[in-house]
Amino acid sequence: MDKLELEKYIPIESLTGDSYPVTDTSKKLYVETYGCQMNFADTEIVNGIMGKSGYDITDNIDDSAIILINTCSIREMAEARVLQRLTEIKKYKKKNPKLVVGIIGCMAERLKRDLVTKKGVVDLVLGPDEYRKLPSLIDNLIDTGEKGIAVKLSRVETYDDILPIRKEGISAWLSIMRGCDKFCSFCVVPYTRGRERSRPLEGVIREVKQLRDEGFKDVTLLGQNVNSYISEKFDFADLLEACAMAVPDIRLRFTTSHPQDLSLKLIETIAKYDNLCNYIHLPVQSGSDRVLELMQRSYTIEHYMKIMDNIKRLIPDVSLSTDIITGFCTETEEDHKMTLEVMKEVRYDGAYMFKYSPREKTKAWKMEDDVDEEIKTRRLVEIVELQRDISEEKNRETVGKEYEVIIEGISKKSDKMLFGRTDGNKTVIIPLSDAKPGDKLMVKINRANSATLFGEAVTVN
Ligand code: 5AD
Ligand code: SF4
Questions:
Q1: % helix, strand, coil for the chain, step of 5
Q2: Which homologous superfamily is 402-460 in?
Q3: How far is the CA of 369 from the centre of ligand 2 (A)?
Q4: What is 28-150's CATH superfamily?
Q5: In this structure, are residues 100 and 122 in contact, taking their beta carbons and an 8 Å threshold?
Q6: Which end of the chain is more exposed for a tag (fewer CB within 10 A), N or C?
Q7: Could you tell me if 73 and 192 are in contact, meaning their C-beta atoms sit under 8 angstroms apart?
Q8: Which atom of ligand 1 is nearest to the CA of 186?
Q9: CA end-to-end span of the chain, whole Å?
């Protein structure tokens, strides 16, 4: 698509945030978020919806009249943590019987009414497509004492018109689509988040410009599978290009991708624009074609490697990361070694690695979870250690080179240091100076470990 055609879709004006006066102290809302970045972005949407209805967002749970827990169902552990948290929250309800407690997000969608019947402390249960109903269900609960349950999945809801309330900062999440139609056999997301649907391109551009106007410098476009984004005739590469042109001074990244749909056009688009970060997260899940087939991932390692080769060829200096599941049903030692081989061949800068956790409703739920827990753990340790070594090697290769770093703030480990991020998503620590969050500095790297680069500023832009 040519530039002029895309520009037609870029509105001149950004939406400005309305302000909502808040006087009622019983309207203090506290939201606790678990899980993926999509959930963190959803919490900002929930805050937007609630802010509009006169609720005041607080970071202090002791102050709150309403506690919402935005939950994750991806692995059993994620759910167990929330259930544990609910038992702690009981003490707040004891202190204040009027306190409203809600479970929202994936666990709400999965467990539905059970959350209310089995967990007495829960007053509200809302799935990911029902957040607009929050204010009315809360009003109804307060008026009638009736617990609120709303768990319908939608084919159209994208919250495009909702203005998320974000914390001030340098980086922001921007949700561009919802749901997933991939149905990987291990994954509960298609059941908890429903069918894929994309926001209109104009809405995304409007929001990215607004984020620029609010001072954000690094924006991540979010979706369960951004490569299936479609708005009229525009695909994800078109959207990315339109964003790159709309906010040339803002770094843009995206997550997450599926190898079946990551197009050459997308790689070429990233290569073409300086503000599209040279960073791609492409989950491989397993190095064995046999396991990939059982996982219903719809690609082979050969196909995956071809994409990786194209990425490396067209985007030199690219940073790569992945997701890996270890101990999936029937995984043999041989399959596991194939995963280690893929890791060595691709040389990822980073990886998110998990033990397989069976989830009800999924196809794999009916397969036997036949890899012993100790074997899963041992294999996980092996991939984690291998990845640490590779990350360290790759980070050491940066020593002596210069990178553009956007400063994010004071280092959490030392108040004499600043931290920032490179275009490749690596954390960099530099000595404290008069640089402020949001400043772009050229930094020369002096040393590195598997997680962090350490350097010093050479020039200020
Ligand atoms: N068990 C373990 N890991 C899982 N993931 C998704 N479902 C499961 C599961 N049942 C991982 C995948 C996915 C990431 C977001 O979470 O690696 O890419
Ligand atoms: Fe789950 Fe697969 Fe969809 Fe990712 S692509 S959310 S792993 S079903």
A1: 40, 25, 40
A2: Nucleic acid-binding proteins (2.40.50.140)
A3: 19
A4: Methylthiotransferase, N-terminal domain (3.40.50.12160)
A5: no
A6: C
A7: yes
A8: 10
A9: 32
